[in-house]
């Protein structure tokens, strides 16, 4: 009987099937049985104590997982390329005339220049230093923001985005976008050779999608109608989601009853955009989730904007205007960030924008006047800065250094834009002040400036000190 040496693998000592058959036929049966049992025991013992086998198995598992991840990435890349090619094919069917925008989807500008460091004069205004949340209230706020940051990542599945394209009438959308784009270009040319149109072709595609979504595709629901008599229903409370409703992502169900036929109606609140693409009904949350996903399907760069006052909307990046555009599908509103404050009279505290690449506090874009600013007491400002940086770090951890630097430069540029908005409003308020010299030498400072509580500011008197 052959016994393997300590330097030889046990598997090397096992004969091939042909050699094994020859050995068994040339030996007595008893000896053959003894040989097999001893060899099996020796092999089992050697395998049990061999670290080489376990290391080999671990390496095999790691290689298999890596290969599966690579194949998944390649598969998603193929689906994305196929979806974008289908969009290009649809656009090719629409004749273009004097079109300046030829991109397939909007992308932030890449100037190729490094973002300059802040000037030393900025050191005079000591910036807030991000600090981790320290109390229970701010930690709950952090958990909620981290959960909300997951929403845009659900719009990045290429297979589901391909499915979303099937419900969009692309021919109609592109035709309307082409007509609007030509009108805007003609208006710009009539104003001068250097005048640019208000929106380019890609912006017009998003605008056409907004009109179709509001007027045709989605339905606003306060109280769902009765399915039996089609009458109005009355809310009677909340219910427990059924197994089917839970499977589609519903965490709560509103219950309604028809006063005429006493039929009960269930209104599950879904948060999955691809389920909403089939139900096509809901309130602001459902409208925003579904429309944001459809914008992502046609190639737009999208952000989900959460507001603490129970309203949500999206932002779409315009490469033509080089900034984020406010879009509210519920109101068919395009680039109207002051609609909530100056239009509706709402007071806003937090407006946080989430994208697949990070998060940003964009409250200053929607609150221009102090009287519309609600109290921000869910966390301190340094704690909010820390959470925003935490979300960006998580979303960008797998990106290359160049991509991270590019995104950080775009974020700094947007923060500069928001600071400029605040400064312009302050300057406008100061310019609206009026100075009136009184008989006693004092100066009355008056105007229409509003204080932080919303009341008209009182007249401030400045005593003239002999000048």
Architecture overview:
- There is one protein chain.
- By secondary structure, the chain is of the alpha+beta class.
- Among the domains are: about 1-45, no CATH class; about 60-95; about 130-220 and about 285-345, C8orf32 fold; about 435-465.
- It has helices at about 10-15, 15-25, 30-50, 50-95, 135-150, 160-165, 170-190, 200-215, 245, 275-280, 285-295, 340-345, 365, 380-395, 400-430, and strands at about 220, 235-240, 255, 265-270, 280, 300-305, 310-320, 325-330, 335, 350-355, 360, 435, 445, 460.
- The protein has a 6-stranded antiparallel β-sheet with strand order 9-8-7-6-10-11. The chain has a 3-stranded antiparallel β-sheet with strand order 2-3-4, with no helix packed on it.
- Mean pLDDT is about 80; it is low at about 1-50, about 100-110, about 120-125 and about 450-465.
